[in-house]
């Protein structure tokens, strides 16, 4: 199966700190890859490499078989339209309403009419339970609602690859489950998911492949069964936390 | 030893300053190039024109009128000594149109708009909104910086004209209160000595002011770090740097105007 995303010996340092150290993995198309690890171990930086917001010091990041770092502005933009990115803090544009945030990628990258874009944005917001909040400003939303609005924006163009940073952080258990179900539905529709999470029960629901990052290195990479069977103390601690394992 | 360390410190600061000037110049030059490349983002430019131009108008008109009143009072006090009260409208109009209007409009806009640009882009930087733009395949430099620079370059001459004319109107009110001069006579005297070479270069130089204010504020916004503290600092530094660049560039621009329009020196 072709890889949607491939890391080949990627290393990245910020000053003296090695955030990623010789990290390699493949994410097959249509699969969900869950990246686990303690805070500050390079998980979000990994996502940023995929979308080309951060460039590796060495190694190569391939997205849909294209070396993301060799692409110029227009080509990189074209690849980015195939990806949706939910940021850890949602990163909604606070000068626009929630609806306009979701409509923004469609306005930029489709030829749909204004009415069609509004209708689609409403549907995307309904998918995350925010159908009544189209005209609200991001500042009027709670943290969890902002997260869901961010997810709706990330899904606006029905991307082939969805990068999700802590999807259930700040959400109540019921909403978190709805988001998990939504992500599973996206995966079943053929979307490749790359999910950074601390929530092991949620990762068990969404993920096909798992990896644990620790101090910039990939400690273990495999299926749920392989991670559950791992003898690495940190992996064991992770997989058995929050009701897992 | 202490002399060496002092030299070290001065050298390091000088290098830091040169690096800053280099980065700012590169940023400004890139904006100049990107302005001519599609997409042109007309909706964003129009939105900023409204924000920078239309919403600055009340401040500019009020300040202009107040300056006109004050200038009129000062001019009267000076010219009365020589029995040249008839020259008050012309003196005031020349002072306003050639220098006071453009410079004051620039400084006011630097305070109102420059601070806003620095804070807004800075806040977007620290809350990852700039990254979100990039992740959505939008050139953040073009979308945030170039659109603001173009909008302010368009807005500045218009705001300057507003300041000039509100200043002259303020001067008239002050003069009418003292001497009862008619509106018609005041304006006839005010514009007797004004030529296009007074009005056009002095007004158009504010296009450069708009460019400098927006480039400095956008650059400081894009390079913001350290969270909300950094945003506040970007906002303050935008005003300081914008004002300083306006004053320094004015010296050069006036010299250039004198070179191309020798009549202005007369």
Please give a structural write-up.
- Chain A has two domains: 30-56 and 66-82 and 159-245, Rossmann fold, CATH 3.40.50.300; 95-157, no CATH class.
- In chain A, helix 3 (98-109) crosses helix 4 (114-127), helix 3 packs parallel to helix 5 (143-154) and helix 4 packs across helix 5 (143-154).
- Chain A is of the alpha/beta class and 245 residues long.
- Chain A has a six-stranded mixed beta sheet, sandwiched between helices. In chain A, strands 2-1-4-5 form a four-stranded antiparallel beta sheet, with helices on one face.
- Chain A has helices at residues 43-50, 73-80, 98-109, 114-127, 143-154, 173-188, 200-206, 224-229, 233-239, and strands at residues 3-14, 17-28, 32-37, 58-63, 66-67, 83-86, 161-165, 192-196, 209-214, 217-222.
- The radius of gyration of chain A is 18 Å and the shape is globular.
- With 266 residues, chain B is an all-alpha fold.
- Chain B has one domain.
- Chain B has helices at residues 2-34, 42-52, 57-80, 88-126, 129-135, 140-179, 183-192, 196-222, 227-260.
- In chain B, helix 1 packs across helix 8, helix 4 packs parallel to helix 8 and helix 6 crosses helix 7.
- The mean pLDDT of chain B is 93.
């Amino acid at each position: 199966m072709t890889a949607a995303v491939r890391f080949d010996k990627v290393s990245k340092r910020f000053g003296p700190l090695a955030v990623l150290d010789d990290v390699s993995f493949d994410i097959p198309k249509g699969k969900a890859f869950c990246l686990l690890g303690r805070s500050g171990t390079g998980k979000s930086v990994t996502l940023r490499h995929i979308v080309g917001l951060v460039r590796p010091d060495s190694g190569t990041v391939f997205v849909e078989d294209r070396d993301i770092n060799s692409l110029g502005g227009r080509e990189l933009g074209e690849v980015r339209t195939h990806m949706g990115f939910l940021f850890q803090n949602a990163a909604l544009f606070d000068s626009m309403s929630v609806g306009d945030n979701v409509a923004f990628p469609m306005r930029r990258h489709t030829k749909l009419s204004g009415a069609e874009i509004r209708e689609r944005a409403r549907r995307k917001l309904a998918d995350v339970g925010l159908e009544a909040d189209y005209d609200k400003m991001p500042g009027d939303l709670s943290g969890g609602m902002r997260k869901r609005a961010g997810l709706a924006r990330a899904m606006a163009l029905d991307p082939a690859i969805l990068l999700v940073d802590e999807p259930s952080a700040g959400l109540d258990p019921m909403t978190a489950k709805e988001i998990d179900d939504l992500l599973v539905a996206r995966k079943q529709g053929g979307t490749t998911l790359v999910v950074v999470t601390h929530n092991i029960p949620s990762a068990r629901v969404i993920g096909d492949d798992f990896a644990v990052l620790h101090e910039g290195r990939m400690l273990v990479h495999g299926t749920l069964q392989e991670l559950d069977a791992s003898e690495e103390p940190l992996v064991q601690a992770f997989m058995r936390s929050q009701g897992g394992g | 030893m202490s002399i060496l360390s002092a030299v070290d410190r001065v050298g390091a600061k000088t290098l830091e300053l040169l690096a800053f000037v280099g980065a700012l110049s590169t940023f400004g030059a890139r904006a100049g190039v990107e302005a001519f490349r599609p997409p042109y983002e007309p909706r964003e430019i129009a939105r900023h024109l409204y924000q920078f131009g239309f919403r600055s108008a009340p401040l500019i008109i009020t300040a202009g009128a107040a300056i006109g009143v004050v200038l009129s009072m000062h001019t009267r006090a000076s010219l009365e000594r020589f029995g040249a009260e008839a020259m008050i409208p012309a003196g005031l109009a020349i002072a306003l149109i050639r220098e006071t209007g453009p410079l004051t409009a620039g400084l006011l806009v630097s305070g109102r708009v420059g601070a806003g640009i620095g804070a807004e882009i800075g806040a977007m930087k620290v809350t990852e909104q700039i990254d979100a733009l990039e992740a959505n395949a939008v050139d953040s430099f073009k979308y945030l910086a170039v659109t603001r620079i173009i909008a302010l370059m368009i807005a500045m001459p218009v705001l300057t004209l507003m300041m000039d004319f509100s200043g002259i109107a303020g001067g008239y009110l002050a003069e009418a209160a003292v001497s009862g001069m008619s509106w018609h006579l005041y304006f006839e005297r005010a514009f007797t000595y004004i030529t296009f070479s007074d009005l056009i270069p002095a007004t158009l130089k504010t296009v450069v002011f708009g460019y400098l204010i927006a480039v400095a504020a956008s650059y400081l916004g894009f390079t913001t770090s350290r969270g909300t503290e950094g945003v506040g600092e970007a906002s303050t530094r935008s005003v300081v740097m914008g004002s300083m660049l306006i004053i320094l560039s004015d010296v050069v621009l006036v010299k250039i105007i004198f070179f191309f329009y020798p009549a202005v020196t007369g």
